[in-house]
Specification:
Keywords: DNA-binding
CATH superfamily of the largest domain: lambda repressor-like DNA-binding domains
Shape: elongated
Structural class: mainly alpha
Distance between the termini: 72 Å
Pfam families: HTH_3 (PF01381)
Protein name: XRE family transcriptional regulator
Number of domains: 2
Low-confidence stretches: none
InterPro entries: Cro/C1-type_HTH, Lambda_DNA-bd_dom_sf, TransReg_Diox_bact_type
CATH architecture of the largest domain: Orthogonal Bundle
Number of helices: 7
GO molecular function: DNA binding; DNA-binding transcription factor activity
Length: 134
Amino acid sequence: MEKVADIASDIGEYIRQQRNSAKISLRQLSKLAGVSNPYLSQIERGVRKPSAEILQQIAKGLRISAEALYVQAGILDLPKGGPVGDAIRADTELTERQKQVLLDVYESFRRENHVAEATAKPPATAGEETTSKE
């Protein structure tokens, strides 16, 4: 039970940080997200744990990805791909399907390179003799 309270507190704090950095009041965000002011306040204080649907509405109000809130809430695992994956996910001109295709291609390239590196013969180090046919 303690873990659920921690997650609710963490997501509430994250929402508050995002709201403050966007310079949006609690009242403005509640209106943009379509949730009541008291309910949003309870979420930010960690008293309530919002559903995925409410998180999506809050993300829309904050103009951030719902996925970012889902990760913070523990609904989704932390996405792979680092800054490239983050940039793809943040692009507002791509559809969700286009983003997923790009992420899949990017991850396949990364896996391919990882396999190639793992199977490549390591270079000879100083002091090792190399055999050559002359």
